[in-house]
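Q: Structure for this?
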Amino acid sequence: MTAVAPGSTIVWLTLAAMGLPFAAFLAIFFVTRPRLLPSLVISLACSAFSLAVAWWLLIHLRGIDAPLMFQALWMHGGQASIGFGFLLDPLSLVMLAIVTSISFLVQVYSLGYMAGDPGMAKYYSFLSLFAWSMIGLVVASNLMQLYIFWELVGLSSYLLIGFWHQKFSASQAGKKAFVMTRLGDLGFFLGIIVLLLNLGDLSILGLNSQAAAKLSPALLTASAVLVFCGVVGKSAQFPLLTWLPDAMEGPTPVSALLHSATMVAAGVYLVSRLYPMYAASADALAIMLAIGTVTMLLASTMAMVARDIKQVWAYSTVSQLGFMLMGLGAGSYFAGVFHLTTHAAFKALLFLCSGVFIHHFGTNDFFDMSRQGARHLRIPMVCITIAGAALAGVFPLAGFFSKEAVMGSLAELDQGIWLWAGLLGALLTAYYTFRLLFVMWRPLQPLQDKQSNPGHDDHQHSGHSSFGYGVMSAALIVLAGFTIALGFLGDKLIAFLHWQRPPQIPHHTWLLVTAILVVLVGIALAWWEFGRRGAAQEGFLRRFPALETLFARRWYLDDLYRRLTDYVVYGVFSRLCTLNDRRVVDGAIDGVCRGTVGAGWLLSFLQSGLLQYNLFAMVLVIALVGIYFLLL
Amino acid sequence: MLSAQLPVLSLLIFFPLAGCVALFWLGDEKKVRVFTLAVSLVELALALPLLGFRLGEAGFQFVEHAPWVASWGLAYYLGVDGISVLMVALTVAILPLCVLCSWSYIASRVREFHFCLLFMTSACVGVFAALDLVLFYVFWEAMLIPMYLLIAVWGGPERRYASIKFFLYTLAGSTLLLVAVVALRIAGGTFAIPELMQKGYSFDFQYWVFLAMAIAFAIKVPMFPFHTWLPAAHVQAPTAGSVLLASVLLKMGTYGFLRFCLPITPAGAEHFAGLMIIISLASIIYGGAVALGQSDIKKIIAYSSVGHMGFVTLGIFVFNLRGAEGALFQMLNHGITTGALFMMVGAAYERSHSREISDNLGLGKYLPAFMGLWGLFAFSSFGFPGTNSFVGEFLVFLGAFQRQAWVGFAAVPGALLAAAYMLRLTQRMAWGEPSSVSGWPDLNFREWAYLLPAAFFVLYIGLMPGVFYKVMDASLQNMLSLMQRPVAHYDAPPAPQKSGGLLQAAGLAGREGGR
């Protein structure tokens, strides 16, 4: 590890890149909010600065052979002190470039998408808040700092999902997202405490180098799994996967930035960040592999029946995140990170393209979009096709190479089942992606007159200005470029990630062929059902209504959770406690008080001042005393 | 030395009392408010010498000692250490906020109201600064009366029930405390708290004295089965009363644990630690569960107090430095955050004239500043990283895990429940379908003035907790080391001959109990 001297250019630039988005948030939120133009300038300038620094750092430090770290003391806890600073190594540099790039592109895109919205300045302040917390998360030098920014990312997600005040369902979704991720975060928090108490060090480098040696295997697995709980929450893995589709209630650029490319990928990033620690625990890797696989398959099936374009991409995000975790769980650090990188590009592109359609047609249903003439919007249509093909894993787009890397790592495992699951997932992915694309390209009954569909309208449009369309298209084209190019940078990335000493990755020609065949089968099936002339555009699942309902209801996971909270938490637990509080605890106290008053009332008869009562009492007492002495 | 020149603590205690007296010459309501605000600000300025507190010293500073009733060994003995100096600062800092948040809320008997506020501050500072047991007890009881009046005179519709409940409940605890005070005098031969901390007592003695004190303090905190006076009192009390109750009064219970139970009767505390931990955990989870089912905003916050104070007692009874630090942090945090939340409920009440959630919906659109600050305090309340409570909860969790892992795990549902009820409340207030919000004004200057200081400290403690560690660490370490002293194997010595008949009689009772 190299500690950078405070005061050097790198330190200043990095700290500025970390801090400026926050300054932008404060400035916009508290000062310039009533005025739109300065707010936009501030936000975009800070975002552009972070972008420039991130890429400069990536290029400048491309040959580093040891991580750069800078940190200042923040607080002490346990035997160790907790610092605050940044850690630059290939992983964080790559992630930093991804985050700042997508963040900047989404800010540019939103100029068109959010134009005319009364809360646009506030929206940009929240985007800046998000950029700040995400950058802080990526470069965090220790786990505590990472956790703090991790939660802040959740906060900005909460604010952005519930951005439209008039949509109560949106705030509901925001709350659901927050509580569900927090459920996982508690595990993360406990993991931090276990690590801190047993290791006395939370710095990421320290954890990676010492955890395996200093902790007993059981403790290592326990803390790795606890930290992984946070990943399950944040990356929407099974069983906490149902918040992400609901989070699509937010504005579409937010979905592109937070809920596909960067924030939800933070979970995968965390695992990569601590990969040496995870790699030391075979059990933790096995759990990761299993959860990733289950999530990937479940989410793919859900995507097969969704009609809402954002929902399809949301399920697909969940499933691809599971796929990344499969790669990591199978032991290939590179495969996970590579897929994370390419996925960020093509999934952001998919969402942004969908945003253009939603903006234009005022509906989220892609059958409707198609009927209204989606294919006449050339740029987004071409871009969504490129991105969709990349998602499905079509050669030579980015997704093909990164999926290949993950498949290769799965093939190395002893049990074949993981590879088969991965191939099945690839088949389903190709099917649901091309189902959507074919529907979009080939409308069933084109409508001549456009009729609006206010039910799905995201927000009030201010008309479709050519400026807005142009800005949005520009962002799309840049991302499409990345989607095409990134795949060929795999060799560079693997060398960079492994400090210029890339491990030997075995290549299986049979696997390559099989994977391509599987994708082709998926596409062909989609074409038969949705793409060919005269197709009824009904999936084969229509013939299995039970399955279709199961998938459409998200395997009843949501219903299960709602019942659980409604009946068990609210209905039984909370109600019983409240009742107990009123009747039993408070009732007992009131009972004691009433008893005291009652006893006083009874005793007051003794003091009535009437002689006969007093005499009677005297006689009674004497009689009782006499009986007592005589009998005993 | 500053402390030698200037009796800081006496000034802090008696200056508000002098203000009380001066209030009798003021008739005009406006003048009363301005005058009280001035008094509270001067009081705050008088506390500035406390900044000269020497860090890293375990003992008491700013000590003042004078004989009081010499024949009984009573002394006027004041001093603060790293634990109490923070509490004194909190008390003094809350006062001006209370005056400001009652500016338009209190319309009747204004002079008497401010009399109560000032009197209360005197008594509270006294409780935290007293180093003589009897002096402590006098302040402890003195503070009951103004609080009772605050609820009974300026409270809501059920104020009589709530105020009497509050008074009787606390008084019941106080009688037990009195027994403990007398018993300690008999066994230790002095009323001076620092000396009592050094002595050894037999286990039986510690057992009973701990129990007497612990019940008194547990009622004050309040801990799980003794908590029902709190929601009643909070809901009925006026805003300033709720703020004082949450920010200062509850802290006296946990302060009592730290000041008396742990250092004076360590063996008793150790014996009951398991029970106290379980009760603390029960408070955390039970408070959260009940808060989840309430529809009255004040009730939600009141029950959340039960949960938060559970974290404090949990930190105290795990008997390690992290836990104690966390407990003290949580005492400060709860004072700031919950106090601020009560002030905000008061501000909302002034607009909607209701404390039901359903009457305060959809504030986000029309009152963005209000809702933004509310969000900050609500997030602080459930320990969001970057805010003050995160630091405290983190340390308490650390301490709990250091003692036994299951203790830490058992507190986790409480943290989740806290997020759940706070988000449920915040979501409805921010996004709900508004009923009649549109005409309401956003925060005015006065409201900003009392909310911003609280917001500042929420973030300051959350981001830079270092200086607070330095204040509290030495004293807490000293307290924990005092707990290590051995149990005496002899019974309590007979009462000194000089003491009066009253003490003899009470002493007999105490010793009888000690068997």
